[in-house]
């Protein structure tokens, strides 16, 4: 318990981890795995730089600067992932279909149809008629009760 309190006292006032650090850690693991096969010194230097950056950001006491860096990273991440957001949502959410309106760019969240195929709907904001290719559908389980004797 003394060690934990020492670590807690050491980390007091320091930044800790955030989304940018998580991304850097994943990048480090990728570079590490690639370097296991290639065994290049320049990749090893990149690994070292990544580890140093992660540790320096985690232990940094300049919290405002680290927050600014994280905000910039999040903006970049949003710019990159924004075109794929409906695809990501469709993949993650198994109970709804997400469709972006081509006229007003509103993302519609629709309930699953009972059958697979082409469906039609209307955008609530601009009233444009939309066509949806529904690959997902409601799976209805029929449960039969056994008659008791
Ligand atoms: Zn619309």
Describe the structure.
By secondary structure, the chain is α+β, with helices and mostly antiparallel strands. The protein folds into 2 domains: 81 residues, no CATH class; 42 residues, no CATH class. The chain has 5 helices and 4 strands; from the N terminus they run H-H-H-H-H-E-E-E-E. The protein has a two-stranded antiparallel sheet. A two-stranded antiparallel sheet has the order 3-4. Strand 1 and strand 2 form a beta hairpin. Helix 2 runs antiparallel to helix 3. Bound molecules: zinc ion. Zinc ion binds next to loops. Zinc ion (ZN) binds next to loops.
**How many DSSP helices?**
5
Gyration radius, rounded: 25 Å
Domains counted in the coordinates: how many? 2
The total count of strands amounts to 4
Distance between the termini: 63 Å
Strand order of the largest sheet: 1-2
Report the principal-axis shape. elongated
The low-pLDDT segments are none
Secondary structure: helix percent: 40-55%
Instruction: Briefly note the structural class of the backbone.
Output: alpha+beta
The chain-level mean pLDDT equals 90
For the biggest sheet, the summary is: 2 strands, antiparallel
Order of helices and strands: HHHHHEEEE
Percentage of residues in DSSP E strands: 5-15%
Which molecules other than protein and nucleic acid are bound? zinc ion
């Amino acid at each position: 318990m003394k060690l934990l309190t020492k670590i807690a006292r050491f980390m007091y006032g320091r930044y800790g981890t955030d989304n940018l650090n998580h991304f850097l850690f994943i990048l480090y693991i990728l570079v590490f795995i690639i370097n296991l096969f290639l065994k290049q010194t320049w990749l090893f230097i990149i690994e070292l730089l990544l580890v140093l950056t992660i540790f320096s950001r985690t232990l940094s006491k300049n919290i405002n600067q680290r927050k600014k860096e994280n905000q910039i990273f999040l903006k970049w991440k949003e710019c990159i992932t924004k075109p794929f957001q409906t695809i990501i949502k469709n993949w993650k959410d198994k109970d709804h279909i997400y469709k972006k309106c081509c006229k007003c760019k509103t993302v519609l969240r629709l309930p699953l149809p009972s059958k697979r195929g082409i469906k039609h709907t209307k955008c609530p904001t601009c009233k444009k008629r939309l066509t949806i290719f529904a690959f997902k559908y409601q799976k209805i389980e029929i449960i039969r009760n056994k008659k008791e004797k």
